[in-house]
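Fold these two proteins, one after the other.
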Amino acid sequence: MFVSRPAVHPVEAPPLTDAAENPPRVRMKEIQGMPGTPGGLALRLSQFVFAAAALGVMVSASDFASVTAFCYLVAATILQGLWSISLAFLDIYALLVKRCLRNPRALHLFTLGDGITATLTFAAACASSGITVLIGNDLNICSQNHCTSFEIATGMAFISWFVVCPSFLMNFWSLACR
């Protein structure tokens, strides 16, 4: 019976190189606002704060559920808040363990999530803004409704969308540079 026997071949150590001849490779500079940077964490936390403020102000008005656009704003800000706080925790983890979050799959996920939540938040803020203008200016029934609360919540949703845009653009730009 012919059985093959494993052969062991010695492995040579890599040659020592001089740092002057072959300088070490340098990674792309960490741009503030990208995932895993302090700027990215600040953007995520501000997205969460403004989405939570919009949600809190809108829910504090007792008659928001009677208008579909306001219910849509509540749903969009809940989604925005959950997405932002989960990525903020991921940024905190990356900063604590000094880990880079520029993995192509992760960047695809971040870009897709930021794009979807930004679109939903912007659409909800626009719809709520239209209803607020209708109630306040066209129908003149602000005395019967919580127009101020609706306006503040809509403004906070727009600010939340405005803060999501840099995150989306940074992630999209990082994907385009690969």
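Now the second one:
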Amino acid sequence: MSNSSDSEVNLVDQNSDSDIGDENNQQHIVIPPSKIDFPEKMLVEIVAKPSTLAEPSPIGMSALAIGCLMLSFAHFGITPASTALQIPWVIFLMGFMMFIAGIVDAFKKNLFGSTVFLMYSCLWVALGFAQYAFKFGSEEAIKKGEYHISMCLIGYFIFNIAPLLVSLQLNKVLFFDMLMIQLLLFVLILQFFNVYGPKPAGIFLLFISFISFYWALAELIEQIAGGPVLPKGARLYSWKKKEEEEEEDN
């Protein structure tokens, strides 16, 4: 090995009889950081490795659309408002499928999608179990349960303000979907306090179903075609300054 001045590598003398465990006699190999070269291909794969997870929003929005369509028919009286028949759809279709979509969005680091899907999947599961309790509970338990559900809906009404405001800077379709959910929560709260009957909630459930169906179809076609096909509408408002938007566009 060369003894040049820029070399900082010291080798341990293999012929030495000194004790290796003795820190005073042990010699170290010092490699400067500038001498450690990683292959460029390895760095690119570590830093910019693409996600292998599929876009989950078509699954979550389709489950929301089908569930809301089924519930809207029950609110309009088209189908029997049977609690036993609603529980499987509410828990397994809307709750379970939206939960899966939220978990996948979390792995994809989609904060908005994971927050909305996971929060509302838990709401549908809770409502499903509450309906199950109503079916087999006493009249007093049902009244107390309805009071607790109304308080929960008030909490979700406050929570939904944040996704509604965020959707302003995403696209029009998502904003109107979140707006219909906000109005649905408001009407359901009034329904539990016996202000309205079930039909106003059925109207908003139907609107949510149609908008969610459109979103799921648009997103599915976009992922397959590699670009937008069905319009989602431009964002209605941006919280960023114009200079930051121009930098992102460039």
